[in-house]
Amino acid sequence: xxxxxxxxxxxxxxxxxxxxxxxxxxxxxxxxxxxxxxxxxxxxxxxxxxxxxxxxxxxxxxxxxxxxxxxxxxxxxxxxxxxxxxxxxxxxxxxxxxxxxxxxxxxxxxxxxxxxxxxxxxxxxxxxxxxxxxxxxxxxxxxxxxxxxxxxxxxxxxxxxxxxxxxxxxxxxxxxxxxxxxxxxxxxxxxxxxxxxxxxxxxxxxxxxxxxxxxxxxxxxxxxxxxxxxxxxxxxxxxxxxxxxxxxxxxxxxxxxxxx
Length: 260
What we know:
single chain; 260 residues; mainly beta; Immunoglobulin-like; Ferric Hydroxamate Uptake Protein, Chain A, domain 1; 2 domains; 5-stranded mixed beta sheet; globular
């Protein structure tokens, strides 16, 4: 598949073509993988599954969490060209990795990814739930509403386990793993931007429920990447929770950082 066109549909062992415009989000300048995670045999959507873009050697490039509808949108780095594979995992399902395929800058791949249920004993489910992200056992993330907001399907969420799996070296790498986030590099600093409704804008930023006065510069956050427990990103003010600046009025989105 070395001579593939820039916009493609996947047909791997567990992929079938996703017909129609199931996602209304615009692809970014980076490579974009979008589609839906479904249960094999029933085509039921799988919510809160993890879709991971991997290099041919198995290194993580980016990952995201599926919504209630099973939809996902995942972007790689714009300057990365190579052979990739995709992994899908969800509680109660067999983790499945498939590919290989070539991605060039601005390529868009639209797929359906089917994974099979994995019958688990109750104690296995508990162990799996704990290993997935500790979000079930983390009282703070339950009290502050992180878990409830993730279940509602609005915005993008990174759990403690997902952040640990990504092992970001800095805040820029962590933020770039979230669909819709861009980092604008400058002289000695970098700036966070969201791609909301086709335009780039500086989001509001909250750290542990406290709003940070920022122009989007990452150094203004005052947070080391190793101290980040969980992350929420909302592309627009209309999507964000009211307590964190959400509004039906037009406006840029919100980034919420939870620390350890």
